[in-house]
Amino acid sequence: MSKEYKNYIGGKWVESKSGKRFESRNPANWEEVIGTFPKSTKEDVADAVEAAKKAFPRWKKIPAPKRGEILRRATEILVERKEELARLMTREMGKVLKETRGDVQEGIDTGFYAFGEGRRLFSQNAPSELPDKLALTFRLPVGIAGLITPWNFPIAIPAWKIFPALLAGNTVVFKPATDTPACAVEFVKIFEEAGLPPGVLNIVTGTGAEVGEAILNHPDIGVVAFTGSIEIGSRIAEVAGKHLKKVSLELGGKNPQIVMPSADVDLAVDGALWGAFGTTGQRCTATSRLIIHEDIYDEFMHRFIERAKGLKIGNGLDESVEVGPVINEAQLRKIEMYVRIGQEEGAHLTLGGHRLTDGEYAKGWFFEPTIFEGVKPDMRIAQEEIFGPVVSVIKVKSLDEAFEVANGVKYGLSSSIYTRDLREAMRAINELEAGITYVNAPTIGAECHLPFGGVKSTGNGHREGGWTVYEIFTEWKTVYIDFSGKLQKAQIDTWEDME
Ligand code: UN1
Q: Is pLDDT above 60 for 252?
């Protein structure tokens, strides 16, 4: 049944001033409309910013542990709704139920972590260089946070941004991806039910070109956090730079899994299957390059291809399905384009490469798990993010060559090495240019309480997750308290003057 959803601005559910709507459809069956949503404009964003601005002074004054309690209530509601939201997410976004449950769970973990952080938000003190003077620091909220999120983790990624932004005392204008607005609106309803004051969290649905741009260009938004593509990310950095906004970007990857001859091959195959084809390859942490040492190549590839052939593709609501559809037609076309590019570049298409259209697949965006062998490191299929169930396999002669290949891309999010040799593992930790390195585990599956993000063009130096996300959503205030009762001069008074 299709629902009519609205924007949530200043504690009220409202239509867009445009009067227009857009649809969200099920990628496993495009005849199913999940809901219709306001196609919002600059004016709607201005209203949301106004509401967030009005709510900010009061929200900021509530002590962080008390803000945390409201977020804990929201998280408890999320726990109760886990199954319902997971089912909605599978219908709206396509990934299989086990994974959508995991997605909601990641939101839950993040919410409880933020609740705990309400009693921490640690700052540091340092000795003053002058007597009878204290030097302290505090974290302050930035102000209004503009949060722009992707469709591949429809609850987890909004949760990563919303919970810490709110806990730190910011108010929020949230623009979810146009492919998953139902999950986003349902998530916002939970905060309303938990008693979040009006205006503290606002959602405005619509396109990047309208709503996203309006957020970027609004002078009253102090910090923008975005997860998505390099193209949009650099546009955001450019505009935010012009307006001197804080900005945090997480922009994808071309994540390698290295397999060395000493590896437990079955474990490495398990990891590669999950990393490359889990979430239909649509994670920014997905394994999109397998870098396999020549001595183990045939053994690994034989088992990997056999297992990949057996993966069950279908509607994610069927608990036995392992690989759901891709998100939409545009994404499917992009994957098809990369398959063509790979073939033209001379890579060998070992498995898959086609869209599925028969029977139950007829009305969905299903694509076969796809393996390219004979890939050279400089081919486009080894360099560019495809964001689908496509993995490029590169054969190497040594660990040094594996590092060179792994590091030879502009991205640097996640990475993995399978080896039983401690020296190889330690070298990988040192030498892989990535924000995350796994040893004997796949490139996906980061945990919410540790820093998440990447180096090089994957981001702009920030880390979401863990304690580091609070650097994004707070500003430091340094306080000096001089209780000497006289004028003391830093850098000028000597210790003899102080005696
Ligand atoms: C993403 O794809 O943008 O580490 C996030 C992982 C998940 C998060 C992925 N916890 O794979």
A: yes
Same fold, 3-251+459-478 and 255-439: no
Residue 10 CA, ligand 1 centroid: distance in Å? 31
Domain ranges within the chain, ordered by starting residue: 3-251+459-478, 255-439
According to the 3-state scheme, what is the secondary structure of the chain? CCEECCEEECCEEECCCCCCEEEEEECCEEEEEEEEEECCCHHHHHHHHHHHHHHHHHHHHCCHHHHHHHHHHHHHHHHHCHHHHHHHHHHHHCCCHHHHHHHHHHHHHHHHHHHHHCCCCCCCCEECCCCCEEEEEEEEECCEEEEECCCCCCCHHHHHHHHHHHHCCCEEEEECCCCCHHHHHHHHHHHHHCCCCCCCEEECCCCHHHHHHHHHHCCCCCEEEEECCHHHHHHHHHHHHHCCCEEEEECCCCEEEEECCCCCHHHHHHHHHHHHHHHHHCCCCCEEEEEEEHHHHHHHHHHHHHHHHCCCECCCCCCCCCECCCCCHHHHHHHHHHHHHHHHCCCEEEECCCEECCHHHCCCCEECCEEEECCCCCCHHHHCCCCCCEEEEEEECCHHHHHHHHHCCCCCCEEEEECCCHHHHHHHHHHCCCCEEEECCCCCCCCCCCCECCCHHHECCCCECCCCHHHHHEEEEEEEEECCCCCCCCCCCCHHHHC
Question: Is the minimum distance from the CB of 284 to ligand 1 under 6 angstroms?
Answer: yes
User: Is residue 250 annotated as part of the catalytic site, yes or no?
Assistant: yes
In the CATH scheme, what architecture does the domain 255-439 have? 3-Layer(aba) Sandwich (3.40)
Question: Which band of pLDDT confidence, cut at 50, 70 and 90, is reported for residue 499?
Answer: confident
Residue 166, pLDDT score: 98
The pLDDT, as a whole number, for residue 356 is 98
183 is a catalytic site residue: no
Q: Whose CA is nearest to atom 6 of ligand 1?
A: 445
What's the pLDDT at 160? 97
What's domain 3-251+459-478's architecture? Answer: 3-Layer(aba) Sandwich (3.40)
Is pTM beyond 0.90? Reply is yes
* pLDDT for 2 beyond 80: no
